[in-house]
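Run log, item B.
One chain of 386 residues. Sequence copied directly from the ordering sheet:
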Amino acid sequence: MQPRGKTILACVALVWFGCDGRQAMRVTRDGGVAISTRDAGQTLSAAQCPPGKTPRVVDLGTPVKLDLLFMIDDSPSMQEEQANLARNFPRLIDALKNMPSGPPDLHLGVVSSDMGAGTLVTSGPCADSLGQGGVLQVRDGCGLDVKNGRFLIAPADGSTSNFQGDISEVFACMAKLGTVGCGFEHQLQSVRMALSGFVSANNGFLRSDGHLAVVYITDEDDCSATANSTMYESPVSGQDSSLRCSLAGHLCNGSSPPAAIFSTPLANCVAAPDGGGKLIPVQTYIDEMMRLRTQSVSVSVIGGWPADVATANYEIGYSSTSASSDLLTSIPICKSANGSAAVELRMKQFVDAFGSAGTIISICQDDFSNAMAQVGEIIDTTVECQ
């Protein structure tokens, strides 16, 4: 992922880059619009919108009201990644403090990937059919006063907050959700529920005059299905339990990947548009996120994605690093000292829909400090596509 150039927010609403890279529009202090013409070959990476989408000007205000939600995978393989996030979160706080418009008026919450696995799984970590249900997570002893909300409130002017201690340390404590959550991760569904307005415990987090930024930390692809789904019900002989999510949610060379040893260039594979008839289509989450009552939205994924897409392969086989090396599984798309990750095509489709306001960063890094800085930068440079 190439670093994104900074967009000046101080004293202006937002820079609007034309998607063809030829014009840049800026809403000035007095409300006028300044237009500059650029060479057609000078395409701005921060300006790319998906086909059929155009950028819109968003007045974020000064200071920016920022509702920042972290979706943290709490499945059994995420211990190292959670610790990495906790260590490096101060980099994100530093990036937010250095926004051109000053530190944001911040709401900061955490939600897990655990939404259970439907009503038919009655034992193990997925036995609760609704899992954590999209409720913002609070751990005892972290310093948050839950009587004043299940999320951190840090006003830009430094006035009364609802937590004790340094915000980086409080968040680092909250981010360590543990690793006993359901292994059929519902990353998209948990955020959908958290922001739906139907979870009363989350009331007050999302502001209609704020900017929403969602950061997903996960080492497997989204496996969101309806609560009455039968796809999680029974183990599949000879297969790792999570492989069914890839077989249902991915297409390679126009077809579902086979439940067999398989390899093809990653460029040949995409998320299945209809969720394979078993998972909730990614487009559902895109549409609903864009309809939220908020001023603008940016999304970032720190997940299963290779450092070099051009040379990466999508593979199914037997992994010597897996606890069950005799089971067919998705071969990790990346590895590091802090673990490995399966390719996340559904999450990639999701972030791509947001154009310059979406990014995916590899979770296979020994240090998340650069990733945290990039997340801070995309919040600071968002040009929302519609």
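Observations after the first pass:
- The chain has a mean pLDDT of 81.
- The CA atoms of residues 135 and 162 lie 18 Å apart.
Flagged for discussion on Thursday.
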